[in-house]
Design brief:
Distance between the termini: 6 Å
Strand content: under 5%
Order of helices and strands: HHHHHHHHHHHH
Helix content: over 70%
CATH topology of the domain at 95-291: MetI-like fold
Low-confidence stretches: none
Radius of gyration: 24 Å
CATH architecture of the domain at 95-291: Orthogonal Bundle
Number of strands: 0
Number of helices: 12
CATH class of the domain at 95-291: Mainly Alpha
Structural class: mainly alpha
């Protein structure tokens, strides 16, 4: 197992560099550059020429790529054109917000998704029919549309007369956050997380529950489940201890596949809710042609996806002892 983990970590480096190289090529092929954004209408063209020279944007593609790779090897993520400071500092402020949003959504989605999927599998009639319709609605709904609907309902319009709470539609904290005590700050952060986390969780939960339902329906028909029941074990133990453990094996595999979906959804959710995470930073950088931020953000996203796939493989082996990695 240790040798396998080391190999996967070593393979993650060229994989992430390949992703960043592809993004570098696409950014270079896209029309315009940072000078077109920084230079306002009416400013002489000589200013744009000087900006391109200062940032090396007038150099050939091969030279720009070599300079970027050299900086990356040294651990330097370059300098942001629009933020006016190192890219590492810009992303270091935004990354914790993205990780917080993603981690909470993932935990809720897998916990709730497993529960809903098991209930659907063991109650395959009316309960399954109702839950299947609800799951299908959220599974087919785009994240940004669900987010906008939740904002309209819970931020601008109370669903019931006298509804006591209106959740914030954007931001991470309320005015006066700095003077709150620890409990107040924690409550305020959770208050601002409700709508974006709920949006991501509902969409992901729908997908997870579908996999759990299918896997559970297959497992509960197998001989070892019938044997456990024949021994007189309580039905709760049969379902949650024996059947679910075997049904989770293919579901854990989905963890690695869901990370790209999660990060893609996070980018949209951060844009909808004005959440100052890395996804929003990268989206803004695309509009501003801030190449160093785009490249660094893409590289970090690629590394996080590769790491998540590695974690999924390790959990796969822990859940099913029959699996061994050489």
């Amino acid at each position: 197992m240790k040798a396998y983990v080391v190999r996967r970590i070593l393979l993650a480096v060229p994989m992430a560099l390949a992703v960043a190289t592809l993004v570098f090529l696409l950014v270079h092929l896209a029309p315009g550059d940072a000078a077109d954004v920084l230079v306002r209408p009416g400013v002489p063209e000589s200013v744009a020429v000087q900006i391109r020279a200062n940032y090396g944007l007038d150099q050939p593609f091969a030279v720009q790529y070599a300079r970027w790779m050299g900086s990356l090897v040294r651990g330097d993520l370059a300098y942001s054109f629009t933020h006016g400071r190192p890219v590492a500092a810009v992303l270091a402020e935004a990354l914790p917000n993205t990780l917080l949003l993603s981690a909470l959504a993932l935990l809720i989605a897998f916990g709730l998704g497993v529960l809903v999927g098991v209930v659907q599998a063991i109650k395959p009639r009316s309960t399954d029919s109702v839950l299947s319709v609800v799951v299908l609605v959220f599974y087919s709904m785009p994240e940004f549309l669900l987010g906008l609907l939740l904002i309209l309902i819970f931020a601008y319009h109370a669903p019931l007369e006298g509804w006591p709470v209106r959740f914030p539609a954007s931001g991470t904290r309320s005015p006066g956050y700095e003077v709150m005590d620890f409990g107040g700050r924690l409550a305020d952060r959770l208050y601002h997380l409700v709508l974006p986390v709920t949006t991501l969780s509902l969409v992901l939960t729908a997908g997870v529950s579908r996999y759990v339902r299918g896997s559970m329906l297959e497992v509960i028909r197998q001989d070892f489940v019938r044997t456990a029941r024949a021994k007189g074990l309580p039905e709760r133990s049969v379902i949650w201890k024996h059947a679910l453990r075997n049904a989770l094996t293919p579901v854990i595999t989905q963890l690695g596949l869901y990370l790209p979906v999660l990060f893609g959804g996070t980018v949209l959710i951060e844009a909808v809710f004005g959440w100052p995470g890395m996804g929003k930073i990268v989206v803004d950088a695309i509009g501003e042609r801030d190449q160093p931020v785009i490249l660094a953000g893409s590289l970090i996203f690629a590394l996080m996806v590769v790491l998540a796939n590695l974690v999924a493989d390790i959990l796969y082996a822990l859940v099913d002892p029959r699996i061994r990695y050489d």
